[in-house]
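Recall that a protein's primary structure is simply its ordered list of amino acids. Everything else, from secondary elements to tertiary packing, is in principle encoded there. The following example makes that idea concrete.
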Amino acid sequence: MTRILPRPIPGRAVSRLLEAGTHPLLARIYAARGIDSRDQLDYSLKALLPPTQLKGVHEAAQILADAIEAGARMVIVADYDCDGATACAVGIRALRAFGAEVGYLVPNRFEYGYGLTPAIVELAAGMEPDLLITVDNGIASVDGVAAAREHGIATVITDHHLPGDELPEADVIVNPNQPGCPFPSKALAGVGVMFYTMLAMRAELRERGAFEGKTEPNLADLLDLVALGTVADVVKLDHNNRILVSQGLQRMRADRMQPGIRALFAAAGRDAARATTFDMGFALGPRLNAAGRLADMSLGIECLITDDMGRALNIAQELDKLNRERRAIEADMQEGAMAELDSIDPGARSSLVLFEAEWHQGVIGILAGRIKEKFHRPTIAFARGNAGELKGSGRSIPGLHLRDALDLVTKQAPALILKFGGHAMAAGLTIREDDLSRFEVLFESVVRGLIDPADLTRSLETDGPLEDSLYNLETARLLEREIWGQGFAAPVFDDTFRVENQRILKDKHLKLQLRKGNTRIDAIQFNHAEPAGQSIHAAFRLAVNEYNGAAGIQLMLEHFDTA
């Protein structure tokens, strides 16, 4: 069951935004998202929070500047997702522009798992670094940092994940979510943390006179990478993150981007001149992530750090091929999961825990997300790891902080989960295969104790009806240009329509012709093969539909009921 709930719209906020010259439709949408002044829509770089409030960033800048002056060798240890890849690329490009000798290492998820582990330190030691820099990982790497110290290697941790009870004894930690950090934006992605670290480092080098007689590196040139990593990691788009994303989008649209980003647009068949957050989240990000899921994220990082457009295009094509392979694997896994769920009543459960021996470890996170969306239950999917272990990836729903739930499981059964980490809405864990049934029972019990039963019914918030005069291409283009994402949801409207025509595409997508007043409108709902009635109440996004060189509008249906 899905409830369609119109968002409350504060009238005073709408009035203030209208008085400031905001488009009437946008004023209504913004007000419903907590915006009540134009200042909150200022996406200029001068509105960006300064690095000075980020705990540890000044010390990190000093350590890195000292390393450059000493001719020290640095190695970046990256995570194997899009956030980690873009953070690594930001670090590589910025540090090399500052004159550093820097390489990178990204763990193969199937051999080494996540983060700065002792095994990764051993691998990195072969590169003879003086300094290890983590991006998008490291806050939980207590043993890894200790191993680096034993090798005489300094460590700078840059991360955004929530810390555990014990922090690693690194030379410095930069993480807005570490204890005692006053930085107002706790939602920075890993790439955002690295970008801020590079801003602080440039300021430190400037103070030391490193740029006298030469042009300072323009770090704003890296904002396309920052935007992509921020959107792809599905962090909350608070005001600061919206600035980073907006600035990156401006550069994409103006064709001022890294060759690798340009190549990814080409591989995805998207027009960078009209780049949107949807492009980053659903076209570019998945292609980069496919490398980490099925192969080696080094491929994705190489795409982002090369200045050779030809090479970037070749790598982007490889990434596109991997993404098609990923989609095929995911479809097979989803079919198997749905078959398994046929024998289970999700309505009687507060959580779902799934495992199949043949499932691919790199795709279980996406699968968990699909199942979660369908059944609106916190879902964890497991695949086989090494030595009798299961690797799990979970996705949650509003009302349940997934990492906190796993933490509570460990408090009730300390030896059950071998390791875990993550966020409110996504987390990963490792258990023994023999403990799967025990984990399922305990996780269900913990979720039941934490979640309000009402949260198990999906609520779809909408922005109410769309005026008849706004069903046009101009409105769709207006909405497309704005910054939408996690915590700043893209507009979803709802209204009642007469169904004039409908058919099923490729046995799984419902294509409709709808009528609203005197207007006929095309609509589609993906992955929905059940026919609609003569009249429907639908929640939808207004989208641009381009076909054979012509552009029109199409409603992307999120949900509908018979009216």
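The longest helix spans residues 309-341. The CA atoms of residues 426 and 550 lie 39 Å apart.
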